[in-house]
Amino acid sequence: MTGIKKIDAVMHRVGDLDEAIRFYVEVLGLRLGWRDESMAGMLFPGNDSELVLHTDDSLPNPNVSFQVENVEEFVKEYREKGYRVLVEPFDIRCGRCAVLSDPYGNGIEVMDLTKFGGVPRFDA
After folding, report:
1. Of the four, 11, 24, 56, 95, which is 20 to 30 A from 18 by CA?
2. pLDDT in tens, 79-91
């Protein structure tokens, strides 16, 4: 099993997506990387990690996701090592995502870029 590659994204819930995008661009200097109806990926200068702004009350806030090469393989090997999977792999914009449990019950979100061929893609 290859390990976690990097922090892919930190998610924050916001009340108004348009207003939040303006704030993070104009005040904090981030760049809009992509956007859909309820989320926007804000890019940091010099790397491809994201601050994902969202308006979905059902998502944890804040939330950190770690990038792995392939979620399906990572989850299989994680389970084989005797650890628990809290949320089975599911589709996301760029690939697959799952939530694992560390030995203390903390959720660890892992995601991959399999729909993008392993390379980040930004649409904005």
Report:
1. 95
2. 999 999 999 999 9
Number of H helices, E strands in the chain: 2, 8
Which helix (H) or strand (E) segment is 50 a member of?
Answer: strand 50-54
Residue 32 · residue 22 · CB < 8 Å: no
Q: What is the distance, to the nearest Å, from the Cα of residue 32 to the centroid of all Cα atoms in its chain?
A: 15
* Domain extent at residue 52: 1-64
Q: What distance in Å separates the CA atoms of residue 6 and residue 62, rounded to the nearest whole number?
A: 17
Helix (H, G, I), strand (E, B) or coil at 90: strand
Number of domains in the chain: 2
Give the CATH number, domain containing residue 45.
3.10.180.10
* Domain assignment present for 4: yes
Predicted model pTM: 0.82
